[in-house]
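Weekly puzzle thread! Below is a chain. First person to post its structure in token form gets bragging rights.
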Amino acid sequence: MGKSTTHRDRVYDIARSYVLQRGASGWSMDDLAAEAGITKRTLYKMIDSKERLVEEVVVGFIAGVQERIGAIIASERDYFTAVKSIMAEFPALAGGLGSQAISDILTQYPDVEKQVIARRNDLTAGIIAFFDRGIGSGLLKGDLTGGFVLQLFQAMVLYFIKASKGDEFQKNISAAFDTLMTGIRAGGSDGVKKGGEQ
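Winning reply:
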């Protein structure tokens, strides 16, 4: 790995931390260059503006979640294990996008907001299609829709993000997930469809 790649990675790591914790206003390109150990001139050779950097960080954050969820859907053979793995991504996504820092960025940079909305819509459509597949294959209750199942999970995650802290959050979200899965599985609490099929 070359020196410029190392500097670039360091700049983006620091910028990601700044953006997700402070938004766009709580730091300057001077701050970023100083913490990365480079000159401001070198920084502007890597990235042409603060707005562009903020956009890359925010859109990259969503793209990373999108890629992880896509990989889970593509590789996990057991549907319910995949659902649980996908739901494990939601707290980070909801916490990141729901933070005051990101809200401030979306207000300040309308072009970033457009990209975030487009990415979020793509992510939402993929997850809804995944739940619809579970409904269509008889694994989830047939009177549900993928959109409704997604709304249930989002509401649950947002509630526990606000109501719980640290280890309590993980314990509560895990218990709520198991309870919700019992309610939406076809065949009730044992997850077995009529006729004994899994």
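Puzzle host: Confirmed. Bonus trivia for everyone else. The chain has two domains: 1-48, 51-190.
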